[in-house]
From TrEMBL, chain A:
PROSITE patterns: TAT. It comes from Paracoccus albicereus. This is Molybdopterin-dependent oxidoreductase. Residues 210-288 form the Aldehyde oxidase/xanthine dehydrogenase a/b hammerhead domain. Coiled coil: none annotated.
TrEMBL record, chain B:
It comes from Paracoccus albicereus. It comes from the Bacteria. This is (2Fe-2S)-binding protein. Residues 1-76 form the 2Fe-2S ferredoxin-type domain. SUPFAM superfamilies: 2Fe-2S ferredoxin-like, CO dehydrogenase ISP C-domain like. InterPro entries: 2Fe-2S-bd (IPR002888), 2Fe-2S-bd_dom_sf (IPR036884), 2Fe-2S_ferredoxin-like_sf (IPR036010), 2Fe-2S_ferredoxin-type (IPR001041), 2Fe2S_fd_BS (IPR006058), Beta-grasp_dom_sf (IPR012675), Diverse_Oxidoreductases (IPR051452). PROSITE patterns: 2FE2S_FER_1, 2FE2S_FER_2.
Length: 720, 152
């Protein structure tokens, strides 16, 4: 065991697992090259850390962003293949292991995936990698053939010279590794792109359609024990006294240990572990527990929003609200706690032996996790390897700035000693486990003059902060103000003749986290619904009204709004017995406008079609962009219609599984038509930006159809 | 002791007869294409074929399976399955992929019973398969595509 961990770890760090040394583009003189500056002011990448060319012609791109469906494996491989002039069929991708230095995300300063940053971050870096690798292959071929490098061409994975010499990549993989990497890799003119901008098939589709893709939970190292935890019934409660006699009597259960996070059952199989957990009898210490109900919090949050808080943005002043003949309108919105509920619940493998640890799971911030695991185990971070596997979704759930899953995984190993463990969360653990989208209250006020023009806009929010007091908050300077709490309520493209946004930080023992599109998951709804109501009250069209309010420089906003109106053949807020709702939101640098077509099915909105226009800069893979818009629309729609985490009086979470935390199902999924705006701007992300506009678009469409105003989400209130 | 056939191979499980088929397949046979999503028959990620019909393996105790024939995604074959798989690949249905084995099992079962399903047939047959990535638009399209190739 000891030996196998060390071997695999060393092999992995050397980047040689399962392959012959000397077949990589492992340039000498890396040092010199590290000092050279690349595009965007970031250091030039080390090509050997990002790409591997094997004698069998395969080109493997090492992807520093975790793949959980949003497509970085395909996207980053496209960038490398483009500059390398590889053939798409020879491209492969694998996840990078934890290394905060080599694989840092330029947006965070450490390794991590989030904020829809993968493409924006890697666009230049991975193109440089491809260009460097290409130059080294060409140099190797030039030396071998005795011809000038400039005369060599590369196309679709084939290196050729006019003399008739030609070769695939694999034959030169070893020789290329001996070449000096170029200090200034030359990138293609985008006009000459042959792969970027095309619908390349995704690299992982095949494995995901025949059952062979290996996710975190699919790993079974030798001798692994499955571990499940009995978790506190309330946030902030801790294990008190434990009677584990009945649990230990369950066949297959090997041990029970009390951890800071709960009571862990170790067993030979998942079912034995679950049975063992059922048999535990635990007294919880609830002295530190949050006992308020979510209903009580709602009232507090709403009152705090209405009272106003720290001003976080001011544009002009609000005197226009007091002017004569101006009618002041108000709205209060309430957004519930939401669970992310990724399809694959949290889980992970840890193997500990002889003072070394190997963890393997869907780690979204692997560098931070590595530190945390080392800390819990009391060993040096260099003795900890974190391998990143495919993950069954995240939507923010795995983006753990407090590394709580890594800490729990390490605690499991620490309590039991050397061995291999698989920690599994059940769906109930997931739904009740917190780290929710923060419950949020919005209070809005605006003035309308006699001509229906908006004369001022005030938006006051109250919610918990995700960042303040967290390690990442410290790093990013969020000390008193947390921009993720209100992003999307500020920096609006509309001219409201005076605007003020304030925010009040609320405190609760319920852990909160980024949920797909973060602040914009509620701000876009508050802003776009209230705006639509104002436009309607002022007798204005939802599309033209918005266009008229756009500031001069809001050209990309204008383009997506016009585009979506065009593809939807916009006729107004209702037509032929259906409602049509318009909404626009920019998040993570990407501009999205949507129109939802809504029917009334027994008093409940049913969305039949959604049109979506998106501007995310250069469209690296339009197929992936469309898929992310479709997915974002479905994810946001499910939450808008059905989802809410309710905390009962006393502090227990009411929902527990998909029977009471309702997922969108196929019959509720609208048809989706996506238009991608042609652009040469640097690419921005698409994983999250499809989400924000869908809820307001549906709510606006429903009002267009029925006249009913929605003030609280979810739209369909559960029959409890 | 439970004797049954899994993907055409005879297996004997000497484990708690109440063990759900899902965990027996994963933990004991290492057939990890069958996924855990909810454990309570609400998501379809664990769908397998039991004697030729789709079944939620997370709520199927192995004690009830003496002599049964179980097929998982790894052991699937046949015209409908191949048409579905090809259609899935043709339009890149999967995102994260966790639900997709279950989707493909349900879609195959649908086509085995109904060679030309309408949207409504699809909605009914696929209602039990949750996709948190909301790949539903493509699931529907791929089933239509598969039906078309089956027609010839
Ligand atoms: S895991 Fe069986 S239906 Fe969800
Ligand atoms: S593809 Fe992610 S849950 Fe369906």
């Amino acid at each position: 065991m000891n030996k196998s961990i060390r071997t695999s770890r060393r092999a992995f760090l050397a980047g040689t697992a399962g392959l012959v040394i000397g077949t990589y583009l492992a340039p000498r003189g890396l040092r010199a090259q590290e000092a050279a500056a690349g595009g965007g002011g970031n250091p030039l990448p080390q090509p050997n850390a990002f790409v591997r060319i094997a004698p069998d012609d395969t080109v493997t791109v090492i992807v520093k962003h975790i793949e959980f469906g949003q497509g970085p494996n395909t996207g980053l491989a496209t960038l490398v293949a483009e500059e390398l002039d590889a053939d798409w069929s020879q491209m492969r991708a694998e996840s990078a292991p934890a290394n905060d230095e080599t694989y840092k995300n330029f947006a965070f300063g450490s390794q991590g995936t989030g904020g829809s940053t993968a493409m924006a971050n890697s666009y230049m870096q991975m193109r440089q990698v491809g260009a460097m690798a290409r130059a080294m292959l060409v140099a190797a071929a030039a030396a071998e053939w005795g011809v000038p490098a400039e005369e060599i061409t590369v196309e679709k994975g084939k290196i050729s010279h006019p003399s008739g010499q030609s070769s695939s990549f694999g034959a030169f993989a070893e020789a290329a590794a001996q070449q000096q990497p170029p200090a200034e890799p030359v990138l293609k003119d985008p006009a000459n792109f042959t792969l970027i901008g095309t619908d390349l098939p995704k690299l992982d589709t095949q494995k995901k359609t025949n059952g062979s893709a290996i996710f975190g939970m699919d790993q079974y190292p030798d001798g692994v024990q499955t571990v499940v935890l009995a978790r506190p019934p309330k946030f902030g409660a801790t294990p008190g006294s434990v009677d584990d006699a009945a649990a230990l009597a369950v066949p297959g259960v090997n041990a029970v240990h009390t951890l800071p996070q709960g009571v862990a059952v170790y067993a030979d199989s998942t079912f034995a572990a679950l049975r063992g957990r059922d048999a535990l009898s635990i007294e919880w210490d609830e002295s530190g527990a949050e006992t308020r109900s979510s209903a009580a919090m709602e009232q507090e949050w709403a009152a705090a929003a209405k009272a106003g808080g720290a001003v976080v943005e001011e544009e002009g002043d609000l005197s226009g609200l007091e002017a004569e003949g101006v009618e002041v309108m108000e709205a209060e919105f309430m957004f519930p706690f939401l669970a992310h509920a990724p399809m694959e619940p949290l889980n992970g493998i840890i193997e500990v032996s002889g003072g070394e640890a190997r963890a393997s799971y869907g780690a979204q911030f692997p560098g931070g996790d590595q530190m945390t695991i080392a800390q819990v185990l009391g060993i040096d971070p260099t003795a900890v390897t974190v391998e990143v596997t495919l993950a069954g979704g995240s939507f923010g759930r795995r983006a753990q700035q407090d590394a709580h899953f890594a800490a729990e995984l390490a605690s499991v190993a620490k309590a039991a000693g050397d061995g291999a463990y698989k920690l599994v969360w059940t769906r109930e653990d997931d739904i009740r486990g917190g780290y929710y989208r923060p419950m949020t209250a919005h209070y809005l006020r605006a003035g309308l003059d006699g001509d229906g023009n908006i004369t001022g806009w005030q938006n006051d929010l109250a919610n918990q902060s995700i960042m303040i007091g967290s390690p990442m908050g410290e790093m990013m300077g969020a000390k008193e103000i947390d921009p993720t709490s209100f992003e999307g309520s500020n920096m609006l493209p509309y001219d409201f003749g005076g605007r003020r946004v304030s925010w009040t930080k609320m405190d609760a023992g319920v852990p909160v986290l980024w949920w797909r599109s973060v602040g914009s998951s509620h701000t876009a709804t508050a802003v776009e619904v209230f705006l639509d109501e104002l436009l309607e009250a002022g007798g204005k069209d939802a599309v033209q009204g918005r266009l008229d309010l756009l500031k001069e420089d809001a050209t990309r906003e204008r383009a997506v709004i016009e585009k979506v109106a065009e593809i939807a053949n916009w006729q107004g807020r209702s037509a032929n017995g259906k409602g049509y709702g318009m909404a626009y939101a920019k998040s993570f640098g990407t501009y999205v406008a949507q129109i939802a077509e809504v029917e009334d099915r027994g008093g409940v909105p049913h969305v039949t079609k959604v049109w979506c226009a998106v501007d995310c800069g250069v469209a690296v893979n339009p197929n992936v962009i469309r898929a992310q818009m479709e997915g974002g629309i479905g994810y946001g729609l499910g939450a808008a219609l059905f989802d809410e985490i309710v905390i009962a009086e006393g502090g227990e979470v009411v929902q527990s599984n998909f029977d009471d935390y309702r997922m969108l199902r196929i019959a509720e999924m609208p048809a989706v038509e996506v238009a991608i705006i042609d652009s040469t701007a640097d690419p921005t992300g698409v994983g999250e930006p499809g989400v924000p506009p869908i809820a307001p678009a549906v709510i606006n469409g429903w009002r267009g159809l029925t006249g009913q105003k929605i003030r609280r989400l979810p739209i369909v209130q559960p029959m409890v | 002791m439970t004797n049954l056939t899994v993907n055409g191979k005879e297996v004997t499980w000497d484990i708690d007869p109440e063990t759900p088929l899902l965990w027996a397949l994963r933990d004991h046979e290492k057939l990890t294409g069958t996924k855990f999503g909810c454990g309570v028959a609400q998501c379809g990620a664990c769908t397998v074929m039991l004697n030729g019909m789709p079944r939620r393996s997370c709520v199927t105790p192995i004690g009830t399976l003496e002599g049964a024939e179980v097929t998982t995604i790894e052991g699937m074959e046949g015209a409908e399955f191949e048409a579905v798989q090809t259609a899935w690949q043709g339009i890149d249905v999967p995102q994260c992929g966790w639900c997709q084995s279950g989707q493909i099992m349900s879609a195959t079962a649908l086509l085995q019973m109904n060679g030309a399903p309408t949207d409504e047939d699809i909605d009914n047959a696929m209602a039990g398969n949750v996709c948190r990535c909301a790949t539903y638009v493509r699931v529907r399209q791929a089933i239509h595509d598969a039906a078309k190739t089956m027609e010839g």
